[in-house]
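INFO batch 0412 | record 1 of 1 | parsing
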Amino acid sequence: MMKFRTLPLSKVKRGERILVRIDANIPLHKGRIPAGGAWRLEKVVDDIRALSKRGAIVIVCAHFGRPGGKRVDELSAAPAVRWFNRIGKVKMLLAPGVAGPEVNDFVDDARSGDVIILENLRFDPRERENDKTFASELASLADIYINDAFANSHRKHASMHAITKLLPSYAGRLVVEEVKALSVKQKKKFVLVMGGMKLATKMPVLERLAPTADVILTGGGLALTLEAARERRALKINGKEIDPAELKLARHALKLFSGKMVLPIDVIVRNEEDTRVLWADEVDPGDAIIDIGPKTRDQYAQHIDGANTVIWNGTMGIVEESVAQAGTIAIARSISEQEKAVTILGGGDTVSFLRKKKLATGFTHLSTGGGAMLVFLAGDSMPGLEVLKK
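INFO prediction complete | emitting tokens
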């Protein structure tokens, strides 16, 4: 397991400025955080509160969505500030920008114990460019840097990578916790559950974990692509033709993981007339597959029963719609019943949905990383973590 430089709380000095990078990329609905959506903030609030109580000046930074390097009011840090103040019980102040003289003056006025959050880092295009000048502007605000944003640590961005060359830098508790949980050796019986949309994002982790997995259960758009490749039929995802590159990859995956990869035997589909259950090989191009069917749910439950390790990433259906939630709920319940198993769940949409349904408590570990979790499990480089190694 990776070993990181960490900063013991006892070493934090009063008045010390600590820049804490968190992952606050939370879902928003009309400027508000929906039920179950604040779980990434919940993961870091205790650490921020603890640094504040030690008398540090805590400067939090994060990104929200993809504003494209310009200010987008709907992607402001303001909803996170409201959550920290109201639910997190942290008196947090919103800086007037991301960086620059005005922000410097704002931070200079801070007192011991104050908590400030910078505006959305991605309002500045230099963040995603790993720009050294932008990193210097951020570094000028603080004495110490802590990365507590595992979910963005696979990105080589200024607030994750370049800044570590300019300040004493440490891994936060959440990063250490994530790496420890995801480094656990997979014990037999090992079940891998993969949903979501794109096979390309899942392929590296499939290649890494498939040799030790006993079975790979598939759902979502990923399963649809595999079905189209297997049956050589012109199916569509959300009304759009499946990318030829995805179909080619799906054909490769079916050969590579033959005997382990399980596809849905029945599905819930919607067309212009109604919503119904069909056998997987009866789906027409005009049918939109929105969830796995009841027979598949039963079959997947049998595969999960008796598992000692389960890793799950991605929903089984379009969970934003009530008629397409049963598959994801059934998988969650089946996994939760494996009381002695190590069970790891990742993917922002999946975790948020199950938390909203109060079905996330039965898992050993809820990873804050979606893509980052997959990158880590695939054994690929994590730029934001490499620079924090001992």
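INFO post-check: The mean pLDDT is 93.
INFO record closed
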